Fold this sequence. Notes:
Helices cover about 65% and strands about 15% of the residues. It has about 350 residues and is of the alpha+beta class. The strands form 2 sheets. Strands 2, 4, 5, 6, 7 and 8 form a 6-stranded mixed beta sheet that branches. Strands 1-3 form a two-stranded antiparallel ribbon. β7 (about 325-330) and β8 form a beta hairpin. α3 (about 60-90) packs across α5 (about 100-165). GO terms for molecular function: phosphorelay sensor kinase activity.
Amino acid sequence: MFRHLLVWALFILYELALINITVGLLASPLQYVIYYALNIFLFYGNAHIILDFAFFRTSRPYLISIALIILELLFFLWMKLHIDVWLTGGGPVRYALDTMHEKIYLTNIFREIFFIGFSIAYWSMLYMVKFKERNHFMEKESLRQITRSLELENKFITAENAFLQNQISPHLLFNTLNFIFNAVHKLSDRAGKGVMLLSELMRYSLLSSQDNRMVPLLAEIGQIDKLIELSALRFQGEIYLKFTKKGKLKEVMIPPLILLTLVENMLKHGDLGDRSNSGKIDLEVNQNGLHFTTQNLKRKSTPYPSSGVGLKNIKKRLANLFPERHQLAVTENDSIYKITLTLNL
């Protein structure tokens, strides 16, 4: 803004000085104020109204801009000549208009073309600057996307290597669990059932984590039920937990182990032995997405110190699989711990 005012001030001073030197006579200040205000309006109106409209809102910008500039030129010529008549009270200007004197028309036409030409140059430079800024922004955005893709690729490679390094044979694991089941179920039905549930949970965890596939929500719910049943066996039924499910669950696909890990975290660190204040798991699917909540009392002391790794891994997976399409919130006070997850499916 300041630079515009400075340029206009210098331009007006230059013209007035030139008139004073060559002609030696200046008109009244009111005339110059009105004329320069009209020309400044022509300058900015041509750039920000005529050219912006023609080039950004029409399909034939060059033809339309030429037509609009001609109409603009005629309008400002008409206005300028009538202002001349008003300021001079008629006289020579009225006579020239009545007789179609070419000098007064040509003088004003060249004057308006002069300002329109500078306006076109100003608009062109402004557009070039905006175009360069837009290209620069798009290049930065493209570079950011490439960088993000490389980071995700590196994370995937790192995770894949870690998985391969730590992978054990599933056959060995399940054969061992099957041996343990056959050995203990004859001695204890509860222990045998616990081994069977553990085997099914391990099978689901291993098979579903071998690729990036999605799994049916009902499959994840089934594993949550087994995990709760296994925990009830461990504590001889002395856990109090309500699991409610609402909505259309059959057609929903989700990443495996996310909900299961949240429930595991609850069973591991929560106090679920209070009948009057039981733990709660709420699952609902509606038009807004999937909503999953766990709430439990905090243990006063826990045999399993929390490292936070499970929750951190979930946050990373959600950021990769549901960027800007999920909300994961942890709220707690001295006695209650609550996790709320929303997925925009």
